[in-house]
Amino acid sequence: MAVHHDRSEHCKDQTMWQQDDLLHLITTPMPFGKYQGRLLIDLPEAYLLWFRQQGWPTGQLGEWLALTLEIKINGLEDLLTPLREGRNQNLVMMTATERQQ
Hints:
By secondary structure, the protein is mainly alpha-helical. It has 6 helices and 2 strands, in the order βαααβααα.
């Protein structure tokens, strides 16, 4: 598995997260490892801290895991509650690209 060790390097061109990134945190299951199948936002903070020390997976998964950790360590998980509740009520959430069409 390829890893990316420096998160700041990963974010140089990205100044803010997109709404779509938050939607991925509540809909994307961890694809491998001890917590395979668990939604990214539901991963334990200790597991995310381990990834930060070992190196994030490359690509969007690594970005989403890093975002998940930032949300957790800053106590912002409640901000995702409306998104999670909407998902649980089977509401259709349009992505930014769908809204632009």
